[in-house]
Specification:
Blueprint: H1 2-22, H2 27-33, H3 40-52, H4 54-62, H5 66-73, H6 76-103, H7 108-120, H8 122-139
Helix pairs in contact: 1-3, 1-6, 1-7, 3-6, 6-7, 6-8, 7-8
């Protein structure tokens, strides 16, 4: 069971990564990736492994020590469990980066490679996205929270308009 879950975890996430990287402007990509439920398959794998190994997982998470974590991760169950955890959270972070980059109008030829980097080294990919986001934000004429710019009356920072009743159009 452990090896099967390990073998399935990344392939379950690949279609979502492919949509974000290869078809970022397709309307269905936004609809599909817009749901946080895309991370459920690897999270289910993680949950199954944690439940099966709970007697070994609990001491590692409730009283963490380097020795205890090393011992657990040195087992097939430990490696598969952390792998499912990493895949789920990398996908969640990648999803946020994709949605954020689309909202900010960042070019897919720039964000695509950063998403690939996130698959491989998520913290480095997230750092790259945050840096790019900051640089792109400085060049953007759109008002950003905290930069002292105030949008014209009736315009929200995301570009929509607000009707007199306060509802967004």
């Amino acid at each position: 069971m452990t090896e099967r879950i390990f073998d399935l975890t990344f392939p379950l996430a690949v279609p979502f990564w492919a949509l974000m990287i290869l078809l970022p402007g397709w309307s269905w990509t936004r609809r599909i990736v817009g749901s946080p439920l895309i991370v459920v398959p690897p999270m289910v794998g993680y949950l199954v492994l944690v439940v099966a190994e709970f007697d070994r997982v609990w001491p590692v998470v409730s009283q963490p020590s380097l020795a205890g974590l090393t011992e657990f991760l040195g087992t097939p169950a430990g490696a598969a469990t952390i792998w499912a955890h990493v895949i789920a959270f990398d996908l969640f972070v990648g999803r946020w980066m994709y949605l954020d980059s689309r909202e900010r109008g960042m070019h897919p030829l720039v964000t695509g490679p950063i998403l690939v980097l996130t698959i491989l080294l998520a913290p480095v990919g997230l750092l790259a996205h945050l840096a790019l986001r900051e640089v792109a934000g400085r060049r953007s004429p759109l008002p950003r929270p905290g930069n002292g710019q105030v949008p014209p009356d009736g315009v929200t920072p995301s570009g929509g308009t607000v009707a007199q009743s306060g509802t967004r159009r």
